[in-house]
Design brief:
Layout lengths: L1 H23 L9 H21 L9 H12 L3 H29 L6 H18 L6 H18 L2 E2 L2 E2 L6 H16 L4 H31 L7 H19 L12
Helix pairs in contact: 2-6, 2-8, 2-9, 3-4, 4-6, 5-6, 5-9, 7-8
């Protein structure tokens, strides 16, 4: 019991130090703002529902389900299905490497942040995919969306110093429950409730994106992907204004988590 109390005390002290460091830092970059992450995870949910409903029953916003399906295919010795699943998994892997490499190259030009350029790339990609005829193989959509989701996940990492995923919600579910229980144990520590609610909001936005995508897919089929542009355009305008006006002199500052 004494050891548990000591551990809790150390955790509290560590969190206090982290909060003090956060207060000492300058204001967050726009690409780290929580509202940006809410828009991004809404798009993540949108893409997940779209590819599953319209493009081959594959989840392209994250790869856990595809890895499980890959293992099941190997267990059944269904080699064609296994090879089929390697496509989205590989695209996600390559997208992560590409974003990591490109972000370093873009930084030296000091014109726009990679985060801002990435949202622009997503917009262009969505427009192109939406204009493709239905005869185009599903794999083209799968690989492309896997690629941009991987870049999004690897680029946007922390919302106001809180680690946040923008393409899946497994960790958000865990964090919502974990911080909520901490708050129940220490009602005076409002920071636990605050963090729990933030992760819960991320989950709700992900669900909202999936709901909107499902409804649009029912009415517009392949062209439903254009619905993601609403969220991406709002985010793009916000980030462009930050890079060109509000944070023009802060382009050298690295977003937290990188």
């Amino acid at each position: 019991m004494e050891k548990e109390n000591e551990v809790e005390k150390l955790e509290d002290e560590l969190e206090e130090v982290e909060e003090e460091l956060e207060e000492e830092e300058e204001s967050y970059l726009e690409c780290e703002r929580w509202h940006c992450f809410l828009l991004l995870i809404t798009v993540g949910g949108f893409f997940g529902a779209y590819t599953f409903a319209q493009k081959g029953g594959i989840f392209c916003n994250a790869q856990t389900a595809n890895i499980v399906l890959f293992g099941m295919a190997l267990g059944r010795m269904d080699w064609s299905q296994a090879l089929y699943l390697i496509i989205p998994i590989s695209a996600y892997f390559i997208g992560t490497m590409f974003s990591e490499y490109t972000a370093l190259k873009i930084k030296k030009y000091r014109k726009l942040r990679w985060d801002t350029l990435l949202v622009g790339i997503e917009i262009i990609t969505v427009v192109i995919l939406g204009l493709l005829p239905s005869s185009v193989p599903d794999q083209v959509f799968q690989v492309t969306i896997n690629f941009i989701c991987a870049m999004q996940f690897n680029t946007f990492r922390q919302a106001e110093h809180i680690p946040m995923a923008t393409t899946f919600v497994t960790n958000h579910i865990r964090q919502t429950g974990s911080f909520f229980v901490r708050w129940l144990r220490k009602r005076s520590e409002k920071k636990y409730l605050f963090r729990s609610m933030r992760h819960l909001c991320m989950i709700l936005c992900f669900i909202a994106g999936a709901i909107v995508s499902t409804i649009l897919c029912h009415y517009f089929k392949d062209q439903a992907i254009f619905g993601a542009l609403v969220f991406l355009f709002i985010l793009q305008g916000d980030l462009l204004y930050a890079d060109l006006v509000k944070e023009k002199e802060m382009l050298d500052k690295v977003p937290s988590g990188h």
